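REQUEST FORM: STRUCTURE PREDICTION
Request ID: SP-0412
Submitted by: Lab K.M.
Chain count: 1
Length (residues): 94
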Amino acid sequence: GYNYCIDYLIVQNWLDEKLWEIQDKLSHYKILLTEDKEGSFTIGNKRFSWDLSYELIEGMKDMSLYQVVLNISWREGFKKVKTQRASYIIYKER
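STATUS: Completed
RESULT:
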């Protein structure tokens, strides 16, 4: 239980940072997800796997709305744990 809580907090921080990075790239450079759409990282002795998907929800003349979904999974003993974060990002033409 305790290890799960620690790992969950680590994952939530990572998700926040990753979504901020995606939003920043889109708003400043109009670059959306040109990087890898999946990967993994290790913190301590725990390996986390992630994947990313996005979809253009609506595009208008000077504005676009995207849905971005990030999934992270890891092993907690014999159990596979997975969490997901979805966010909407607006891109406005300047």
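NOTES: The beta strands are 38-43, 46-59, 63-76, 79-92.
Reviewed by: T.R.
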